[in-house]
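Quick one:
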Amino acid sequence: MNAADLLHGQCVLEWIQPDEPTLVHIAAGFAGRLLNDLGAEVVRVVPKYDPLAKLQSHPREQVGDTSVLATYLNRHKILVRSLTNQSTSLLTSQPTPHLVITGARGVGVPNVSQVCVSAAGPGSDMDGLPVSELGIQGFVGPTDL
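Output:
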């Protein structure tokens, strides 16, 4: 069996609220990309102001209206533009998800397993605080090296 066939037929919904930290959007994007590479169909709900779209480490990294990172993370995903409470019916036109990748607060998709991505675990002293890559490295230890 090919690795790209391991999750064939599985649908994953990647739905991070726009006000979650950028690192949560990046982590969820990578998780969705990995699952997509393993054969799952990944549907990403793109917020109106997508935090990934403008991320760049170099001024020439922009590809049209989006960043190179967003282009990489969104490859082969089905992109659904910003859902509001009244437009969640857009999801009914997509396959029923087997898994939802979401932020710490979760989303209202009943009867589906959810993986919640957060910069710090629930109940942590850092829960809800703004974080950066350097802050995360300090929190988990690599900067001690």
